[in-house]
Every structure is written in structure tokens, then in C-alpha cells.
């Protein structure tokens, strides 16, 4: 396996098995350099979002890389939109900032932002319609969701003409969200694992240091390998060049079954995923 190996989404689109995260990478030099280094290190899948505020820099780094568009996989996400028209405008705005004619994957970022929470089903159906129209117009190759639980996904599956192919959720040793993962699987939806390093919190789990020693690998490499062993698609983020390279070196070793089971048992040791129904945004 390598960074360019792919999973195949239920609509036939191929998606590189590891994506590069950009949340909290500041627009400007920080986001630009991190994406530049990631592409140099061989990543071909970049994950951004309108709300990260860095689509301009991410797009510029992609453009300057000179890598052929069809060798890249770019994801961005819809933030606070409530209607089909607003969502259509948001898609065009993201494409413009990214300097792209199309994105490979476009996700509803949050199932029920506070403002729309009482009517989240209608809101998601309305923005989904804009996403379907954009697929038909060639602006998006695959559409999906993020942070959706079954109660949010089930109503969308009922009205969707084009089915969601991805659910991007927090998955790391401290919270695998197994119920959501099982629902995704039952509906041919690939689970993308965001915060695969717990936004930096997994490094404080003492047992992982022992495993890193056993395999002569870093904790990050052990945990990212564990994510791949489960068939997830991890999205590690770093703005540090050496870590960006390190996080890609996860294809030349495997973990023993008992070590995978040990990591599975670390639930709750470095935080839990937020409940989308309870956040204050
Ligand atoms: N859809 C959503 O709602 C959602 C939510 C959260 C995240 N995401 C996506 O998932 C991506 C990853 O999640 P995340 O940003 O929460 O964080 P993460 O990848 O779990 O962890 C990133 C943190 O770990 C540090 N780090 C990275 N590699 C390391 C290494 N090899 N050794 C030591 N420290 C290391 C980084 O530091 P430095 O950067 O300083 O090197 C940063 O502080 C995001 O960037 C975003 O694309 C999506």
C-alpha cells in the first residue's frame, strides 16, 4: 500500500486512503506551506472546509504544485447555509477560492447547526438538492456528510436522489463511534476518520509509547496504521514538515492482532466526539 492507494466509493469514484487535514492551519503561509509539503511528501488527498477560512491558500498550494488535477482528490465542506440557493452560492464560492473547476468530494459539514436545529431534516434536504445539482453540473464528483448520526442520516437517505458516499466523523483510539461506523457500513458509506490523532491529545496515552517502542515507530504512525487496519480513511493534520512526512510512513508495517485489540480498548482516554445535537453552534 502507498499514499496513492485508494478506496472505491459506492458511486465508483476512487479516493486516496489517507487525506491531509487543514483545520486550524491559518490562511496564508501556514496553510500554504503545509499543503505544499504534503503534496511533496506524496499525499494526493487534501481535506479543507469553507469554515476553516483557508481555501485560498490551500487552492494556491495545489495550483503551484503543478500536479495534474486528475491525480488529486480535494474535499471541501458546506457550513452555514439553510436553502438550496445559499448552498449553490457556497459551492461556487469554494470553487472560486480553491481556483478549481470541480471538487472531488463535498460534504455537509454539520447536520444541525444551532440556528437550523429544530428543522434540520428540511435544511439538509434543501442543501442536498444544491449538491446534487452541482454533481449534475460537473462541479462535484461525490457528495457526503460529516458529523451525522443515524438520526440525521436516515431522513437524508429517504429524500436523496444521489446517495451520500462518505460520512466524515471523529474516529481515533479514544472514540471509534462504532454505532455510526456500523450505520455507515450498512449503507455503503465510507467512514473518514477526522482528528485521527485526537487533535494532538492521543500523545498523552502512556500505553501508546510502549507500542511505539515495540515497533520502532512513532505514536502517530502506530495510531494512523491502526486506523487503516480498521478500514477507516484517516485525515492527519500537521503544519510541521517533518511530521507531515512521518505521518505518511505507515505503509511498510502492520500491527499484531493483540496490539490492535489493545488500542481498541483505549476508549475515553483522550476525549470523546461531541454530540452534534448538543454543541452551541
Ligand atoms: N468534519 C469535521 O467536523 C472535522 C473536525 C475536525 C477535524 N476535521 C479534519 O480532520 C483533520 C485532522 O484532525 P485534527 O486537525 O483535529 O487533528 P489531528 O490530525 O488529530 O491532530 C493534529 C495535531 O497533532 C499534531 N501532530 C500531527 N502529527 C504529529 C506527529 N507526527 N507527532 C506529534 N504531533 C503531531 C499537530 O501539530 P502541528 O500541526 O503543530 O504539527 C496537531 O496539533 C482536520 O485538519 C480536518 O481536515 C474535520
| Uncertain parts | none
Shape: globular
Any idea of the CATH class? Alpha Beta
Number of domains: 1
| Overall number of strands | 10
CATH topology: TIM Barrel
Largest sheet: 8 strands, parallel
CATH architecture: Alpha-Beta Barrel
Description of the molecule:
The protein has helices at residues 29-41, 55-65, 84-98, 120-136, 150-159, 178-186, 206-215, 219-229, 241-246, 257-264; strands spanning 6-8, 14-16, 20-21, 45-47, 73-78, 103-108, 140-146, 166-170, 190-194, 233-234. Helix 1 packs parallel to helix 2 (55-65), helix 2 (55-65) crosses helix 3 and helix 3 crosses helix 4 (120-136). Strand 4, helix 2 (55-65) and strand 5 (73-78) form a beta-alpha-beta unit. The chain has ten helices and ten strands. The structure holds NADP nicotinamide-adenine-dinucleotide phosphate (NAP). NADP nicotinamide-adenine-dinucleotide phosphate (NAP) is lined by residues 21-24, 47, 109, 146-147, 168, 194-200, 203, 218, 220, 235-240, 243, 246-247.
In short:
This protein is of the alpha/beta class.
Would you spell out the secondary-structure blueprint of this structure?
Layout (H helix, E strand, L loop, with lengths): L5 E3 L5 E3 L3 E2 L7 H13 L3 E3 L7 H11 L7 E6 L5 H15 L4 E6 L11 H17 L3 E7 L3 H10 L6 E5 L7 H9 L3 E5 L11 H10 L3 H11 L3 E2 L6 H6 L10 H8 L17
Parallel strand pairs: 3-4, 4-5, 5-6, 6-7, 7-8, 8-9, 9-10
Antiparallel strand pairs: 1-2
Bound molecules: NADP nicotinamide-adenine-dinucleotide phosphate.
